[in-house]
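Hey L., structure's done. Input below.
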Amino acid sequence: MHDLSIHKIQQLYETKKASPIEVTEYCLHQIEQFHNLHAFITVTAEEALLQAKLTEQKMMTNNPLGKLEGIPIGWKDNIHTANIKTTSGSIVDEQFIPMKNASIVDHLLGQGAITLGKQNMHEFAFGITSNNPFYGPVKNPWDTSITAAGSSGGCSNGHGSGIDRHGHWWIYSDSSCRLWSGWIETDIWITKRGRCNEHILDFRSCRTNYKRCNRRGAYARCSYAN
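Output:
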């Protein structure tokens, strides 16, 4: 299951060869197995499995499905998630729990995505290494002695190690990484360019148009670039 894209997971759902519960349990297992990478600040395992169960019931009754139905996703921890701690990678916001979701969260959950938790990052997105002193330094899955880049390091190492599967402020439909299903992040200066460096993670990445996504509910350190 570790090399499946969103599209392939959806095909397994359609042919009844896999279920949202199985995929979500696998993702949670991978997060736990690779906890030493410090990819997540908060893991919402109980909520994720409940979402997966409801999604499976929805599929069994042939109800209309969303475009991301049953796809597990992690959110960078500067993106507001209702009733889930959102720290922005800082001890300052350690107890901050938003009352409502960011626009992008509402949109993707409305399409059936499943929340795995909140992913580690450089404090307040103010840096390029994701060496977080409060929630653990994010480690590069290929070589833990070097950076996973930043500020979205938790998203980067999830993609590189296979904990995630697709990602960014939009969703990749056919990525080729390994551990969990997807992530949503912000990008200011180096997040996408840093991880594309052949000496860091050697990814290929692109960035959405500034006006394409509503940024309400995402902490914007640099509003004109985020």
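Helices lie at 6-14, 20-33, 45-60, 103-110, 153-161, 191-196. Confidence is low (pLDDT under 50) at residues 164-181, 194-202, 222-226.

-- N.
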